[in-house]
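Memo to structure team: turn this sequence into structure tokens by end of day. - J.P.
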Amino acid sequence: MKRYFSLASADLVVPNQDAWALLWDFTTLRELIDTLPGNTPLQNQALVAANEIMNVFNKGDPKGIRDARKIAESIFGEGWESKGAGIYDEGPKDGQIWGIGTFLTLCRDRCLSSPRTLYPPLFEKVKAKVLEGKFHPVGGSWVENDANMPSGEALVRQFVFGQRYFESRFGKRCDTAWLPDSFGLTGALPQLIRGAGMNYFFTQKLSWNNINVFPHTTFNWVGIDGTQVLCHMTPVDTYTAQATVGDVNKGQNNHKNLESSQAALLVFGNGDGGGGPLAKMLENVGARLMDVLK
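Reply from structure team:
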């Protein structure tokens, strides 16, 4: 049965930014409490701070909100917000589009317009950051291709057309090949990646194996011809992380090559249908967790 609805009224409102920020302050504190061992200083301090916030908070009281945020600052560090200032300035605020790196790749695959035509000012900002070395395009291929069935010539074409695109739009080619979602990888990839002018490779799907646990996080992959490429697999074991305390904690505790490198990549954002990084994810990784979980 068809049903019809009428919109009777609509309100134009201005969000209370202090209240919004307090929501994510408290959410992060709760995640710290739930994730970290109970007999640790940070977990105990987060619990005390959360209780104090509940005591001072009164709905509709602006001063209570400010006092509560000051309590949270004792955990995240004084002046922590300045470290994440302008985090939304470099990207679109529409939660329904892909993150830029993914969007640049998938838009060609799905015959959509690129950010160059949809968001010209944003595209120019990204281009400027690339030239400054502050934004690193990754991929090097025309789409995030399968790496099992295509022929060697097909894979070469992926890199030729992909690198040609990046160079024509950003003035440089990619240094890092990016295939997080392929259910397997040909042993010829190191040779093809290096031949395409890239030195690094990121992947992830191997960690979803139900039988064998992949033993490395950062390692040299030696191809069938002896060519080597430096690889990284995120220890968070997903390319759609939600940027929670649990994700960051897993990135630290699940790293299998700490003797070689203490760095790891947290790949966050919603995939398989769009979304990209959401505001709540940026609230966490933007500044709250930058120093707390070091």
